[in-house]
Structures
1.
Amino acid sequence: MKIGIFFGGPAREREVSFAGGRTALANLDKGLFKPVLVFVDGRGRFRLVPPQFLQSPTLRDALPQDNSGFSVYDESLATDALDATLPELRPEQFRDHFDLAFLAMHGPDCEDGAIQGLLEWHKMPYTGPGLVGSAVGINKILQNELIALANGQQKKTATISRDAYEQADKAQFFQSLVDHLGLPIVVKAPHQGSSIGVAIVREADLALFCRSVEQCFFTMTVQPDGWSKVSEWSSLSADEKNELAQKMVSLDSGISFPIVIEQTGEVIKHPADFVTKLDAIAQQGQPVSLASLNAEDEVLFEEFITGQEFSCGVIQDDDQIAIALPPTEIYNVTSFDFESKYKLNTTKKRIPVDTSLENNRKIQLAVAQVFSRLGINVYSRIDGFLTPSGDVLLHDPNTIPGMSPSSLIFKQMAEIGLNLSNSLTYLIRQSLRERIRTGKDTFHLKRLLASLDAQLAARKANPLPERVVSFGPTDEEFIAAKQQYNELAASGTVLPSLMYIKSKLESHEIPVNLLFKDTIAELETALSEPRHPLLIETAEHARHITERYV
């Protein structure tokens, strides 16, 4: 079966998606699937790319650049800048190139039902939840309301539209939120993922509050008493102006290009043009508001929840029974934002949550219930908090979780016995099963599913030859062995296993769930301790799923 791996996209999470495309390509079982790479550019056009496109450190490094000295995404370049090297693929041509679209994209247009609807229109099956679950999973305001209906949880929230915020007395509005929600206040852009557009206001600081709100609307106000750095434009040096313009390109911390001058409707696509325009605006001395072309129109405010933060994946079987994976606790971090998720190494994680077996089961029950009641299918990851009083408060269902090799969803699937390659095969197969339920192109989808099931059954009846990968007691050997294991698993030609040679007299075969330990010290600690009863219990509950792939 030919698999089109879709990555990139117009959303702010495209760098996360770029890394996810690399993971999917590297770990797709080549004995079952043939990968075809489909880069979705910043304007939403589909382009066939070779594997070496994903070898660049970042998406911006993979894209052609102009001679301006700025590093930009393709929206800032000429509309035909990619055509010469990256041929465009029209949606009506999809079925000529692949049988299923593997979606490794995130955020608006990518996991909100937009591309899912386009693919359904062109009779192309895709991975992940369908239209209903995707539409719900992208809207944090709607999520809060539906989760409360599903499980009765109570969490204080508030929202405001951009128009209402602009007309409001900022100090009075901030005080009303403090009275309602208390401090700290969590400020969120409702349609973003990867913790982009999330800020926490911890003190009664009006300037900080206004900066946080503008950050989540993806706007900036240029005026002498404005809240952002651009309000100091006239006093900045040329280098500082260029540095600020380059920072605005950033999708995780800037408002990103193209931007619009709201008073005139003029669109600025490039940071060099931005510098020129801001110099002219500064001379005029008139207040100006800048906004991303994809600015949010509402902002969500939530009370700050004190408790143990967790993230819990969910999968399902052929009868659509949801099975929650072991929850991961996130600790040693003040906020699980984009910086701590993807750029820093300070965040700590453990499976399961450091609490009682009963509380871990309570988390799983709540997560599985919300997964089903919100119309999500195939798989998802739902975050939340376990409060000191033992209450489970959920938020932010994620319908296409991040897909780096160390992503939480893959670590949790390893706890039930699925390695990276097995996990991707599950995702493809279960997605096919769920697309059949839509009643569209049913016969064709059933033939694809039957063919894949026959291949999996044949592999079970005639197991692949085993290959042992041995490593010694250093972190470097452990890292190299894990990489070799994953490469062999993805080759589809052998069944790999890991053997830890601690000494001439002591060795250990390493189970799949320990592949995600980072160091030899962590590995040895795990080998010396009994397996947590929740992990044993969850693996048993999911056995009827995993036995198809292992």
2.
Amino acid sequence: MAILYNPQENIFHLQTDTASYIIRVLKSGHLAHLYWGKGIRNSNFENLLKMQERASFSPNVSGSDKALSLDTLPQEYPAYGNGDFRTPAFQLKLENGSTITDLRYQNHRIYSGKPKLEGLPATYAEQEDEAETLEIDLFDSLISLRVILSYTVFKNHNVVARSARLVNEGPQQFKLLRALSMSVDLPRCDYDLLQLQGAWARERYMERRPLAHGNQSIESRRGASGHQLNPFMALLSKNAGENYGEVYGFSLVYSGSFIAQVEVDQFDTARVSMGINPFDFTWKLEPGSSFQTPEAVMVYSDRGLGHMSREYHRLYRSRLCRGKHRDSSRPVLINNWEATYFDFNAEKILDIAREGANLGMELFVLDDGWFGKRDSDNCSLGDWFVDKRKLPDGLKDLASKVNQLGLKFGLWFEPEMISPDSDLYRAHPDWCLHVPGRKRTEARNQLVLDYSRKDVCDAIIKMVSDILSTAPVAYVKWDMNRNMTEIGSAVLPADRQRETAHRYILGLYRVMEEITSRFPDILFESCSGGGGRFDPGILYYMPQTWTSDDTDAVERLKIQHGTSIVYPAGTMGAHVSAVPNHQVGRSTPIETRGNAAMCGNFGYELDLTKLSEADKAAVREQVRTYKEIRHIIQFGDMYRLLSPFEGNETAWIFVTEDKSEAFLTFFRVLAQPHAPLSRIRLEGLDEARNYKLEGMDLIMGGDILMNFGLNVPELQGDYASFSLGLKAI
């Protein structure tokens, strides 16, 4: 790790263990991007930037230098209107109605550590010597606009973290129309774009397509990162696969509407940019005020997608997630949702919890329906008081009885929403997002609370804190079940209404920060109809996310495989549910359901009292196994061996950092007559060590397992699987 500055050449060289990122300040003051790729020695970089006069339709910065055109210059944070016709990183509207800016280098700072971003989640350094940060000041002297570009490299992580802060140091006010977190110009365009797309119950499917001339973008306009597209993309060289080829990864630490885009220009260069979606966004930047963009985390890999993923996993697991649960093993839980939905009472809950305790589980989670008059999803959100019809002795009594069974107690909330049929709405109808005179569109019979308002946030903090203070709650599932419509606030003036969506996210982060800080011993899991807000921003406050409402084992192969492109297994909630599955109607063996769910934070979501004795025995063994291997899943390195997007078989292996233990899972979706014999080459092991294959009475060398492979045992029927533990001896 190092950030080196050469004052003679005005060049910054950002170094990680395996990559280099190089920037140059031109004599004109423009900030040029020279290189991002495999690590190179610190030497003479003066000749890396080639400039020459191009087509006459590319204007020149100076009449005397025909080679310098912003339309062809690779830049770090480009503007629009003075010669560059490509997508800008930012744009202002001035008091005179113009949108022209001209940023030039003014100064820079290099220092140890990494500063916090005001009001926003971001990766962090626990010690100053873990990271080094470069801040570059760009300045528009005509309007006194300062843009501070921040770059951080980490000692133990091969990433570059970028953000920008725009400061109005002049006398006039600006209207910020666009403020992206990063922009980088790559000299080639022969890449494929990888994105994670989907829908509710079908999140984060991998989709790969070649770049073409023009703009290719993925985005959310929903007020949340969304089920449909994740705030991540990668550019892959044409030959890139899981273990080979160049990959450039881009991940945004933000939970609201975003954009990630690549523009291929007339000269076959590719401009990549990412940040808050400028659609329907403005921000009033008054004199003396500033605007901070979210952080973008960039990873370069010359060893394929798998290496890129593991870089993200290690960083997000240890320097994005926070709190006491970051490094603690997560409990095996039983959730009552698919067992009872809204139809339960205290006796039924205790029956399920009692069976969970008998099977070795560690946590019971009471899901939706415990508050207000909540017998369906048509009422009571916002009425955070116990429904005494279902729980006559209250939450504290129920939680204490669950604790007496040897289980911790968890609780479901949906604090960002309000039901029109609720006491809270009747008292405060202006507390939801709305536009005067317009219909308030409902989804799942609910509206969205206006978290851009401090009074609303304060009220929610108090309501949730009051509940958590009155009962021994060890776990909270924080849900959010609709996206924003009629985005307006009753308290913002007309010229700030288009700030509402971003102010909502800032309010949400404040609420989450306050509640998680007040209750540091509680394990928080986020949820949004499953994976509708599975993003790095939320992971900063809550170290795990309910991956999808789809609990079918076969569907989960693609969902969890795609999610693992960016997010570690230890952030994924994964449960065994009943069959036929409630989402797709498929019946899969309990062994396969268990093997799929054990590749995340493991739990059950079914009525344990209705299981057969054979299934109970299988569950008991799964719980025992998971307790032995969860440290490997939650804190080890994941290697994707076979992809469910490419064939009938899926295989993953998880390996501890010291390579002493591993856990392998293999799935075959459909049986085939006289199928070829399967063999899997394992990854991540130590070639010089021997491994005992648990349950197989077999010892094999790491070199054989990785180069020759492991013969897959004979499997019977559709939806079959097996799992295997390995220990170095």
